[in-house]
Amino acid sequence: MPNEHILHLQDVYKGYDGKVILRDIDLAISEGEFCSVVGPSGCGKSTLLRLILGQELPDSGSIHLEGKLIGTPDPRRGVVYQKYSLFPHMTVLQNVMLGPSYLGLDGKTSASKKEIEEKAMYYLKRVRLEHAAHKYPHELSGGMQQRAAIAQTLIVHPKILLMDEPFGALDPDTREQLQVFLLELWESMGLTILFITHSLEEACFVGSRLLALSQYYDSGDDKYLHGATIVEDHPLMRVAHSTEIKQNPQFQELIASVKSRAFDPSLRQHIHDFNLKHIDSFRTN
What we know:
Largest sheet: 7 strands, mixed
Number of domains: 2
Strand content: 15-25%
Mean pLDDT: 91
CATH class of the largest domain: Alpha Beta
Radius of gyration: 19 Å
Shape: globular
Helix content: 25-40%
Distance between the termini: 16 Å
CATH topology of the largest domain: Rossmann fold
CATH architecture of the largest domain: 3-Layer(aba) Sandwich
Number of helices: 7
Oligomer: single chain
Number of strands: 13
């Protein structure tokens, strides 16, 4: 039922110009989960994020957040994109203060500048940027800018944090550092995260749950004229934040398995053979 999970999608379809992009998306996410989403290029990962954000409406099906139809964008859904969202003419502190200046703070429709500044500094400390509060975005590294963007989002207390390739523009070392940082933040703050990435390794490392979208399957329709759906759904074991797990044989086996089953156009597994192992996985059709 929708009210048993913080986010619930059922029978969701979405297409453009007569072409189906997402087909029969059934997904239930519990509070506190870190869901990584992977899939072939063009399969609709970002479309799924926009539907949850409320930027677009599904053609059919339903999306519930906290038991209510999701509606248009609101502060319950925070989003961090690959491209930095900071305003260049404002300091880091001013950028983080911007949301509550318009939306209110901690449930209050109005708050003093001092209250907002104190809360902004709290979140800058959480992302280890208090020393950069009065710097401008161009003075920060790429990794620091993304941490500031995360603080900018968290200050309005979203129920779910949506992240669309947030580390895709970073160099490998900085990217790995941000992966560990995000895991620590998720655990310490009890966040609910939907994290879209092109990297299977990144998805398996940061997530507590791995979801794979794919258009490469056999639905029984002629010529496979259908959109992507969830073909893999795995619970991931949470371990200490050591990147050494990336060399673990089981870790590598999971990557290889998901890559072969979700990314290979020639496989065409039947919908009844999907690898849906998570306890909350379900299909209505």
